[in-house]
Amino acid sequence: MISLPADVPTPQADAWELEFWAHCAARRLMFQSCAACGRVRHPPMPFCPACRSTEVRWREADGDAQLFTWTVVHHPSHPSLVPAVPYIVAVVEFPALDHVRLLTNLVGVPADTVRIGMALSLVWEEPKRGVVLPRFTAAGDAS
Is 83:24 a contact under the CB 8 Å cutoff? Predict the structure, then answer.
């Protein structure tokens, strides 16, 4: 499993993302949705792109995740990631939540076994105290 070093840069939340990251800190993967029309969206934003409502509610991902796309990174984006290469960057989608997508990493999955559409399980990683990041592994492999 990829383990991020403590000095890796972590997400810097804007005002709309603060609640998403607060849910992650509580190890709950929640997505913003429109209270008016129900559209689920990510990243969080101040209004619904479908109906323009500013009314928000949060919906929890039920664990039914699948791989939308992925790539293997061989050239790290930050010097602290040198020991982690190669690593897999993935876009994960949630069919039960209008196919909302999340950019993340696959962990503990050999690149030669990765397949578009594969079932995934959520795992949490805390590279720094208080910074909790959602990651995914092959379904059935979550620890």
Answer: no
- For the stretch 4-42, pLDDT in tens is 777 777 778 889 899 999 999 999 999 999 999 999 999
Q: Does residue 51 sit in helix, strand or coil?
A: coil
The answer to whether the beta carbons of residues 19 and 2 sit under 8 Å apart is no
Of residues 71, 110, 74, the one with CA closest to residue 91: 71
Q: What is the value of pTM for the model shown?
A: 0.90
* Domain membership flag for residue 20: yes
Q: Identify whether 1 is part of a domain.
A: no
Over residues 111-132, the pLDDT tens digits come to 999 999 999 999 999 988 888 9
The whole domain housing 48 covers 11-60
